[in-house]
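Retro notes, structure queue

What went well: the backlog is down to a handful. What didn't: a couple of records were mislabeled last round, so from now on we paste the full input next to the output in the thread. Example, using DUF423 domain-containing protein from Castellaniella daejeonensis:
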Amino acid sequence: MNPRSLILCGALILALGVAAGAFGAHGLKRLVAPDLLDIWRTAAHYQLIHGAGLLLVAALWPHLATGPAAWAGGLMLAGLAVFSGSLYALVLTDVRALGAITPIGGLMMILSWLALAWAAWRGPHV
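Corresponding output:
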């Protein structure tokens, strides 16, 4: 990943996160059980956090070691796709087994933040 792709992905993910949150609050409210609506909110919440995280990695890029920064962005993107994607799919299909892959996405998100810390540690000293 590079700063431009991180900005592009982050902005699109944030726009979709706002849309997902609005859809959950207005469109799904009457269609799914309250516990599923909470799951949807969790997916949208983490999507928004990690969309902003992608922008953060791009903004900090000049101060980071390039390799770990690229890993941070890639892991963040993959993690939010797996985490939020599996939760959205669970709500829309009511296939509870999809929740089994959600922690894999969560682990990738955790690793992305650790990779960002490593990128900062190894980056140029200003």
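Agreed that this is the format going forward. Reviewer comment attached to the example: The chain has a mean pLDDT of 96.
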